[in-house]
Each structure stands twice: as structure tokens, then as C-alpha cells.
Amino acid sequence: MTLRFIIFFFIVSTADFLSQGLMEDKLLPTRQDSLRGSITPEREWWDLTYYHLDIKVEPEKKYISGSNTVGYKVLKSYETMQIDLQEPMEITSIIANGKPLKFNREGNAYFIEMNKKQKINDVNYLEIFYEGFPREAIRAPWDGGLSWTKDNNGNHFIATSCQGLGASVWWPNKDHMYDEVDSMLISVNVPKHLTNVSNGRLRKVTEYKNNTKTFDWFVTNPINNYGVNINIGDYVSFSEVYKGEKGDLNIDNYVLSYNLEKAKEQFKQVPMMIEAFEHWFGPYPFYEDSFKMVEVPYLGMEHQSSITYGNGYQNGYKGTSYPSNSKWGLEFDYIIIHEGGHEWFANNITYIDIADMWLHEGFTTYSENLYVEYFFGKNAGSEYVISSRSGISNKKPMITGDYGINRESSGDIYAKGANVLHTLRQVVNDDKIWRKTLRGINKDFYHQTVSSYQIENYMSNILNINLEKFFNQYLRDVRIPTFEYEIKDGFLKYRWINVVEGFNMPLEVIIDDENRKLYPTTKYKKIPLNNLYINVDNDYYVLEKNISSVSMQPQ
User: Fold this and answer.
1) For the purposes of burial, counting CB atoms within 10 Å of the CB of 549, is it exposed (0-12), middle (13-18) or buried (19 or more)?
2) What are the Cα distances from residue 413, in Å, to 362, 363, 378, 429?
3) Of all helices (H) and strands (E), which one includes residue 281?
4) 370: nearest Cα among 427, 315, 322, 425
5) Contact 453, 355 (CB under 8 A)
6) Is the peptide bond between 285 and the residue preceding it cis, with omega within 30 degrees of 0?
7) Disulfide check for 38: which of 123, 404, 496, 526 has CB 3.0–4.6 Å away?
């Protein structure tokens, strides 16, 4: 076992991109962290083109066996390939060109010795055979793996969830987010009385004399590893066709037999979700693969074209208004809307490194209040996102800079991420341009993996605003920008404090009963004031400090 040591460090206060005045303990990355989280030499020389995951699931044994055929294009000549599969699963053999390949294991990484010269631009295939008892999920989807449960009728009810933990917890693959496979066939053999639902479209179902069935699902579009899933249960289905921006979109819903009527009512929100998000973000990104809602024994997850659902057929988050404290959180089913929003932000555009996970969760949490705005009005959307601020801790930055080790950052990527985007919308102050920007992100980075810097720079360019200091402040610092002001002798004196050097975000206020836009910097500015009153727009995620009375109020 590799030892981990706890260290303390001080974050440098003079650098814009680091948090200020904090000290926290961190675990030094291990060799396994680096093998999992970095683009190793054994990964970078080949580009994924195709997977065929062909497995048998034995519910009584909680056992998986089968193979994964890997198609890849050679980018540069190299002799060793890295494939990942987590213990206690095991690769038993690997075949290429009809011959076995030698391999060795280092923890959860397998290193395969290629048996022929890898020529640039060649597309080659190898077949990986594996089996074992995959890790059981303890608290899915947060502590993922396989959920082996039974439904109310005693039928097996099984599902996968593995974001962060990695898809290699249950199948062998190139387990890094930077390289998405171009297309994928998923073949799952299960007991005859059960149904498996996976990503993409169902191609065929084959019955066998041993009382099993194999379900073949094909994914036409690129897909990230953790987005691949299997869901096994006593499912019934119902469908509809949505008339969307790109034509007819098939919506298929798979639910437990005894929940059919409840699902038919609750899932009326699915086309509503697609309508709202096509308005804000552009066409649903996977028309070719259809859209599915699939009932599972855990809360839910954004598996591509196969959104998993376990929210009990009720509005809110398990019936509560969380993460918002407003009434609007009970106007929709959190899992349908949030996980559906991930089709645009997580599945269409995907982070290269989990350290930039705010790109998934910040934008998708923000999509919730855009959904509210679309159906209930702009003020309702603002109320929804503003009321979520009570859940922001500001203990860690949303981006800590821990790249290459598969390490998540702060839980603030949800509520704070949404409020940062809501604040930026106020800075833009043009709803048409803002919507164009959100749609542009999904169009210009269509089916791509991206870094936070790519999205930050893109938004700066398309909005024609230098957002470097804005993003460094809100993403890489924990301090909330504070509008400090003093009213004295008929003047308002103001500036930004608790900010990175050069922070100069404009701010809307009410002064003398008029809406005004101020342009504070870290140096004091001064303007005349008739009434001894100023009100800062609550849509900005800032604090205000009136040094006339030495008070500080969160906005």
C-alpha cells in the first residue's frame, strides 16, 4: 500500500490565481493518482475510435465477465499501451491480430506490450477479456460502483455510477476524460426476465436457450467513459417524439413496472426541459442516439442519452427546494432538470480534467434557474439562484490547480458556479448576447473535451470583455468581492476590496432613486450624492461594506 502524507501549506497572497489567507491539509498525490489522472506516455500515442463492450452480468453472484474490443488510431509509434481496470476486477487475457499480448499490472493500470510495430495513422484493434466482482457502490452516485438491489417485487435492480471514481471500476478502458471514444456498441447479457438499458439506441435483443437475453445498444456520438452505463431491472417503457430544433427527437422512458403511471405524469417535464435548454443552449447534442430517462435505485446521474432517475417521482430534490431556498425549487423535478442539463454541460462539452469540474456542475446548476426563468419569468430565475447562496462555503476555490491527479475541488462548484455565471450575465447586461454566448459554447465546442481556460478565453472573446481577473477572482480565490463605500459630506466614495490585483468588475446600484452603473477598482473613486442612500443590485454575488457605519452585508 502506498503511504499518503498530510502536509500543510500557505497559499501565496501575492498571486492572483491563488486563494488568500488560507491554510489547509492536502494529500500528496501518489503514483496511482498520476496514472489515473494524467495523460501518460502510454496513453498519449493512441486515439480512441471504437469500443465494443460485450459482457455477461450475473446478479445472483454479483459478477461481471466478458470483453472490451478497443479500436484506436496510432498518433505516434510506441510499444506500450495503458488500459485501466480497478481492483478487484481482473484482465485475464488480451488478443490482437489473433495472438495473445503480454501485459503487467501496476495497481489499477495495465501496461500492454504491443506485438507489432505501431505505424502512424493505422487503425488497430485489440480485445481485452476480463472478469470479477466489481466494487459495490456504498452511497451511489457519490461513492459509486455497482448498485446491486432488488425492487418491491423482489426482482434484481442493478445500475452503475462512477463519475470521479472512474468507469474502470467495472469495465476496462482508457480511463481519462481527454479522449472520448468516437462510437460504441454495448452488449449486455442478463437473465431472461430482466431488461438492460444502456446508452444510445437499441439495435437488437437476442434470446438464448440458457434463459438469458443480450441487449445490444449502439452509441453513434462520442461519449465519455463515466457516461457509459448499464441499468438492469424489470422495466417497462413508454415513448414520445419531441419536435425539436434538429427535427424529431425520440424520447424513451424505462421505469419499474409498478411505477408506470407515476412516471407518465412526472416525465411530462422531460420535453419541457428539452424545450427550455434548446432555447438557451442550442439543439440537444445527441439526436442520433435519442434521449432516455431510466429509473435506478439511486438518486440519479447524467449518463449520456441515458439519464438515470431515482427522485421518487416528486418535484424538488427528494421533495425539498434544495439547493435553492426559494419556492421555485418545488416547481420542477430536480433530477430531470439538473441531470438533463448535463447533456449540454458534461456530455456535449466535457472537462479534460476533473479539477475543472465546475464546467459541468456550475453551468448545469445555472441551467436550473434558466429553466425557472424560461417558464416562470426572469425574476423567478433570479430568486432561485440568489437563494442558493446560503449553501456556499468559500472554504476552497472552485479551481485549486490540482491537475493530472484526478482530484476534485470544492463542493461550491454547484451553487457558487451558478451564481458566478448569474453575476457575469449582469456584467454583460444584454440577454441576447448572453444567450448567444451559451449557445456558442455548445456549438463551437460541440462534442469536445475542454479546459476551464478554453471556456474562459472563449467567453472573453465573444463578449469582448477581458474576464481574466473576473474568473481568477471567482474560480481561483475564496474571497467574495466586497464593495466598500463611505457616504460623507454629500459624496459617495467607493472601491473594491478582498479582490485579486486588477479586479475591476462594474456594478449596478441605485443612487438617488436612479439605476446607475459604477466602475469600481481597488482604488477609491468619488461621486456626488444627494440622498444618503445606496442599494447594490442583489443579482451580483458580492458583499457590501459601508464604512460609514462599519457594516458588511452579503448580496
Assistant:
1) exposed
2) 5, 9, 23, 23
3) helix 269-281
4) 425
5) no
6) no
7) 404
Question: What angle do the packed helices 358-376 and 334-341 form, to 10 degrees?
Answer: 120
Q: Write down how long the chain is.
A: 555
Residues whose CB falls within 8 Å of the CB of residue 386, separated by 6 or more in sequence, listed in order = 326, 419, 422, 538, 539
DSSP state of 257: G
CA dihedral 36, 42, 43, 45 (to 10 degrees): 170
Looking at the whole model, is its pTM more than 0.85?
A: yes
Phi, psi of 287 (to 5 degrees): -55, -40
How many C-beta atoms lie closer than 10 Å to residue 394's C-beta? 15
Is 451 in contact with 352 (CB distance < 8 Å)? yes
427 CB-side CA count, 13 A: 23
Q: Return d(Cα 171, Cα 173) in angstroms, integer.
A: 6
Separation between Cα atoms, residue 305 and residue 198, nearest integer Å: 9
Strands 247-256 and 291-295, sheet pairing: parallel
**Beta strand ranges found along 141-278 (DSSP E):** 145-150, 156-161, 183-191, 195-197, 201-207, 212-219, 231-233, 235-244, 247-256
Cell numbers describing residue 7 = 502536509
